[in-house]
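Let's sit down with a protein and look at its sequence and fold side by side. Please make up or recall a protein chain and show it to me in full. Label the sequence line and the structure token line clearly, so we can match residues to local backbone shapes. Go ahead whenever you are ready, and we will take it from there.
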Amino acid sequence: MTFEIRVISNTPLIGETNPETAARTFFEQIGYLSKGSDPSIPYTLFADYFIKHPTKAWYVEELSMQLETSKPTIYRHLNKLKSLDILEEIQVFDDATKQHKKAYRLRYGDLKKAWNFVEAHVKVAMENYGKTVEHLQEIMMKEQQRGKSDE
């Protein structure tokens, strides 16, 4: 899966005392919530399940029932969180079925540690962009020099 995050200039939300407002704003800033769409399911999924219960592994069926929505909807939002690499997919033994089932939880069971992982991805992505810019300038200059020698 591809790592994907929106990076915008922002002011830290350290003055915000309402956790719901801070979370919604943060989720919009990083591109998890889309402005203009109904944020209730993705917000509740991330904030009320993964952030408030960071060590618990959640089954898709369980989230679907609790949020009263379809499994494809849950997967769509899980995939957004997975593209941030903030969730981890784990195998959990289900006592009811006596089988291992796929479940999801916050990476490392800790939001701050999970975010460190996201920051590492951003750093690598920015370094790669920098290398691309250097290369682009190099090949553009070569093209320019070739054009001058043809004159």
About this structure: The chain has one domain: 19-150. The longest strand covers residues 87-94. The mean pLDDT is 92. Residues 111-150 form the longest helix (40 residues).
